[in-house]
Write a structure and sequence with these properties.
By secondary structure, this protein is α+β, with helices and mostly antiparallel strands. It is built from four helices and nine strands. The longest helix has about 50 residues.
Amino acid sequence: MVLAFVGYLVETLGIARLEDIYHETLDRLPLIVCGVIFLVIAYKVGRLVFSRPPRTVNLNTFKYIPEEFDRSIIKLTGKVQKVLKDTMGEKIKRKTTDVVRNMTGNEDKVGRYMHQRFVISSPQLKPGETTIVYHNLKSEGRLKLKVGKWVEIQGEYIHDPGANARKKSKSKNTNNSVRNSRTYGLIHYTHSPKGYAKVLSKKPKDIEYKEVTIVKDNRENPLPLRANDFKE
């Protein structure tokens, strides 16, 4: 069959034309080889850049056992799902507390200052879950927030999932994909010296593959990593 095909080419093109094609191919051979090498390198680099990390999950982390990190300083990145409004009753209560404590010389800061409160979801948390942030307006000022904005938060975590759920249930949530959290509590002290809060211009790269950062671990007996703390 091969011989028949060669014979057909000889009859159709002639020996001279076949020789020309052969020499043209030899002349272009370095270019062809370089092209093949480039395609192989591009394929390897593409796999390295765009391939997903191994699907190994560490179960001994904030994402899965947030109750273990109560009163710890954490840092995470999230997307604003709801900005809670300041009610007049809340403003009067905070201002009255501030005035009374100034008069009595009480320096206790708990319940004293107004906070900007907002609910965030995050790829660093369980899917569909949220945490609520209390940002002190006295210390840092109001953040320019709106639903859909990405924020980076560092502060003290308080494990009170009930408080998170209660705050959300008082306001109408139009995002049906995010439910009232029963897993995570709240984050406060998002100001110096413990933390900060800043609005990001866009979603951080590869945030889905990053864990919540434990800046200061206040656990009395941190659990050691064990073989069964991982799952595929």
